[in-house]
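Re: the request from the purification team.
They wanted to know what the chain is likely to look like in 3D before they choose a buffer screen. I agreed to run a prediction and write the result into the notebook, where they can find it.
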Amino acid sequence: MELVYKVKDRPPFGKLIVAALQQLLAILAATIAVPAAIGHGMSASAALFGAGAGTLVYLLFTRFRSPVFLGSSFAFLGSMAAAFAGGVSMSLGYLGLILGALFAGLVYVVIAIVVKFAGVKWIDKLMPAVVIGPTVAIIGLSLSGNAIGDLMKGNVLDEAGAMAASPYAALICGLVTLAVTIVCSVYGKRR
């Protein structure tokens, strides 16, 4: 598969702005959604700060050769919920999150070292596209129940306990999002 733009290429300014806005909306939504899904007083602003700081560290380590933004990952929702479920207190739940993040980071470091010396072909053999595609589909399908449940709940309350969003507005937003996704999937340009 050939990339449309290489890492050092620059798309035309108009396409660059559209891609930047798309990336901003996708990352902002995901980075805010993970703390909201976990609850337990987790802060969306702390997640945004962590994502920004992590991105800057990543860019420094890669010497700006890999234009990537690091955001929140839905892959760890189950383990984060388990950290709070197994903790006797809220502080032990946070300790579990910190330890889990530390060990996950160490695993990533080990994989990075192996990739540096052995290359990436072993990853393609271990996890070909025929494995990755269904895995992503399973993650999406497992999260779809939460999306529908949250959509049908509506009644989003603010900190004072007053209704911040109508369930009807939430339903309309969800249906518009679904319609746009379907139209773009069916009629969008494929490369």
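For the purification team: The first strand starts at residue 156 and ends at 157.
Please add any questions underneath this entry.
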